[in-house]
Design goal:
Blueprint: E1 46-50, E2 53-60, E3 63-69, E4 79-81, E5 87-90, E6 94-98, E7 104-109, E8 120-126, E9 131-137, E10 142-147, E11 153-158, E12 174-179, E13 185-189, E14 194-198, E15 204-209, E16 213-218, E17 224-228, E18 233-237, E19 243-248, E20 264-267, E21 273-276, E22 287-290, E23 296-300, E24 311-314
């Protein structure tokens, strides 16, 4: 929160040198329902992205105070504001870190060829202020840790995956991967219907079968929170694989139900969970916040201001983002 004034300083350009205008979708004509709970954009200061609109939004006091655009194409999947104010994000073809005044301070590009060397990136995580962990979907897929200051690749490890020679198959390999406070890697195998945890030497130490896990998050209580995109549900499980808590679309009042399943979610310090949905191009909410007892306290459905939601970071929630395990995001 202390960094937000830097985004509205007089030296911040409307369009940075690396920005390309992102054309808005047809959803801008979608009407906003009246009397939704939670005060709309005013409920949380947040950093917000969606995979179908390559325009990033920074929101404070109920309004958009800063944007960053990357032109045509797909897609934003992961985003972090660090404690120094820099923003780290994936844009499928690359992963990058930018400053509040829109300067690119680090970038790693995928191989955008159409052959078997083609790679994509859909997940990233800061480890301290000088390292980034990310996964390259590819033939084969690889997990990397790169020092953003020196450019040194400190880890470059092939992730186990069924052999394929079809470069088109890589898109669905992985979405969220998280480095945990315990020094392990929690990997969502999206098209393999499982979540796998590897130790620091990449030995498998835990797995959980679930349909289309878009994201898995290791909670501070030791449980794992998983969003199942296929079945439109989010499930918290313990290390024994027992279900501790589950929320699906039928738990929402009909007026607030998602037309597209949440891809990711964020657990707040108060125990509430915010679900992020692509929302069917304006047909349903982008964000819904519920309490542990499944009470809906916030519904954001504002397609005139924002696009779809794939990831959100709540900026006044405690925890240093670049310390693994502190931000349940």
């Amino acid at each position: 929160m202390a960094q937000l004034a830097r985004f509205t300083a007089t030296d911040v350009p409307a369009m940075g040198p690396a920005e390309i205008e992102s054309p808005a979708g047809k959803w801008t004509n979608a009407p906003a329902p009246a009397n939704l709970p939670g005060r709309g954009l005013a409920r949380h200061p947040m950093l917000y992205v969606g995979e179908n609109y390559t325009k990033m939004f920074l929101i404070k006091d109920g309004r958009v105070i800063w944007t960053y655009q990357t032109g045509k194409g797909y897609e934003y999947d992961d985003v972090w504001m660090l404690s120094n104010g820099n923003i780290l994000f994936t844009r499928m073809q690359y992963v990058a870190e930018i400053t509040p005044d829109k300067k690119v301070v680090w970038r790693y590009d995928c191989d955008n060829s159409t052959g078997t060397n083609h790679t994509e990136v859909h997940t990233c995580q800061p480890i301290g202020l000088d390292k980034v962990m990310f996964v390259l979907n590819g033939l084969p897929p690889r997990l990397l840790v790169v020092n953003t200051g020196t450019g040194a690749v400190e880890i470059n490890h092939e992730l186990p995956y069924p052999l394929s020679t079809n470069s088109r198959s890589i898109h669905g390999q992985f979405r969220r991967v998280r480095y945990t406070a315990q020094g392990t890697y929690l990997v969502s195998y999206l098209s393999q219907d499982k979540v796998v945890e590897f130790d620091r030497n990449f030995n498998q130490i835990w797995s959980y079968p679930i349909r289309s896990p878009w994201a898995a998050l290791r909670l501070k209580n030791g449980h794992t929170l998983i969003t199942d995109e296929h079945d439109n549900l989010t499930r918290e499980v313990n290390q024994k694989g027992e279900t501790i808590w589950q929320f699906d679309n039928t738990n929402l009042p009909e007026a607030y139900r998602f037309s597209q399943a949440p891809q990711s979610c964020t657990r707040l310090a108060n125990g509430n969970i915010i679900f992020c949905s692509r929302g069917g191009g304006g047909k349903s909410p982008q964000l819904v916040e519920v309490t542990p007892d499944k009470k809906v306290v916030w519904v954001l459905q504002d397609w005139q201001t924002l696009g779809d939601a794939t990831a959100v970071q709540i900026l006044d929630d405690p925890g240093i983002p670049e310390i693994p395990g502190e931000a349940e995001h």
